[in-house]
């Protein structure tokens, strides 16, 4: 488990591209038959990737979280960004198709990840996990792709027409902190989350997926008056501190998993910034 300590906006002006990427870009989450993890001290969120290829992969207990088992004091949202797979939680198997979501509540002990057809056209399952501390237990719940609360946002005229699926949220699958969903850009739309915004009460992480290998997303971050950018490839994640805007534009169509944790679970609790206000 890699650890990344929290940063403040005062740090950003002095960072070059390499440091920005070291602190806020998460690469290499999905390694065959392994589980990789990054612990960010922004709201103590853990980002994990699991890619079962030759057989099931068990979720380990990382010494950095000082627990008997991973979910002893935590909860998580899981989205499958690969081929069909299965997450088995304490003996109960949940089948996740591409872009489906599973919430796992506090107290789950044995969690394993498996692929249904790792050599098929879609390849092995690739499970993206976002975990936060939890004060109580809510039931493990599966939401099929597209079956959450669907919101149509944006406009084709501004190249940001998108479908947003809310899976784990205050009026959907219950959780302590984690809020999670998937957004898919419509054909011809490339901008996500425009106008950009902050929510100083929650951190957020994006995982970009379904992006062609030759394409990239230019992800904007930083304070509105001092923006920076990260050039992001397929199945790479960005860490967005509560003080940072988050928005991006791709060179091809894509989807992304968004996940938040922090002070509240109100999706619309955000402070927007018009592009004319940004520098």
TrEMBL record:
It comes from the Bacteria. It is an enzyme of class 5 (isomerase). Its cofactor is Zn(2+). Coiled coil: none annotated. One of its GO terms (biological process) is pectin catabolic process. Binds 1 zinc ion per subunit. Zn(2+) binds at residues 197, 199, 204, 246. Keywords: Isomerase, Metal-binding, Zinc. InterPro entries: KduI, KduI/IolB_isomerase, KduI_N, RmlC-like_jellyroll, RmlC_Cupin_sf. Its EC number is 5.3.1.17. GO terms for molecular function: 4-deoxy-L-threo-5-hexosulose-uronate ketol-isomerase activity; zinc ion binding. Pathway: Glycan metabolism; pectin degradation; 2-dehydro-3-deoxy-D-gluconate from pectin: step 4/5. It catalyses: 5-dehydro-4-deoxy-D-glucuronate = 3-deoxy-D-glycero-2,5-hexodiulosonate. SUPFAM superfamilies: RmlC-like cupins. Catalyzes the isomerization of 5-dehydro-4-deoxy-D-glucuronate to 3-deoxy-D-glycero-2,5-hexodiulosonate. Belongs to the KduI family. This is 4-deoxy-L-threo-5-hexosulose-uronate ketol-isomerase. It comes from Demequina lutea.
């Amino acid at each position: 488990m890699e650890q990344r300590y929290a940063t403040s906006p005062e740090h950003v002006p002095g960072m070059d591209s390499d440091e920005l990427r070291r602190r806020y870009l998460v690469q290499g989450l999905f390694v065959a038959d392994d589980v990789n993890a990054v612990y960010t001290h922004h709201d103590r969120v853990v980002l994990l990737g699991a890619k079962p290829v030759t057989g099931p992969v068990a979720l380990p207990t990382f010494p950095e979280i000082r627990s008997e088992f991973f979910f002893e004091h935590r909860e998580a949202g899981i989205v499958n960004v690969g081929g069909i797979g299965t997450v088995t939680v304490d003996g109960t198997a949940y089948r996740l198709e591409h872009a489906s979501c599973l919430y796992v509540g506090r107290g789950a002990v044995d969690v394993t990840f498996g692929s249904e057809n790792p050599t098929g056209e879609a390849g092995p399952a690739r499970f993206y996990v976002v975990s936060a501390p939890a004060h109580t237990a809510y039931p493990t719940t599966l939401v099929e792709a597209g079956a959450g609360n669907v919101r149509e946002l944006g406009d084709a005229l501004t190249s940001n027409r998108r479908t947003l699926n809310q899976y784990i949220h205050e009026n959907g699958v219950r959780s302590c902190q984690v809020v999670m969903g998937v957004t898919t850009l419509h054909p011809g739309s490339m901008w996500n989350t425009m106008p950009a915004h902050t929510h100083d009460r929650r951190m957020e992480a994006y995982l970009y997926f379904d992006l062609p290998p030759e394409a990239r997303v230019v992800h904007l971050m930083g304070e509105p008056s001092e923006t920076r950018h990260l050039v992001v490839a397929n199945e790479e994640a960005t860490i967005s501190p509560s003080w940072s805007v988050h928005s991006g534009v791709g060179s091809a169509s894509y989807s992304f998993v968004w996940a938040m944790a922090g002070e509240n679970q109100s999706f619309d609790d955000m402070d927007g910034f018009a592009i004319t206000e940004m520098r």
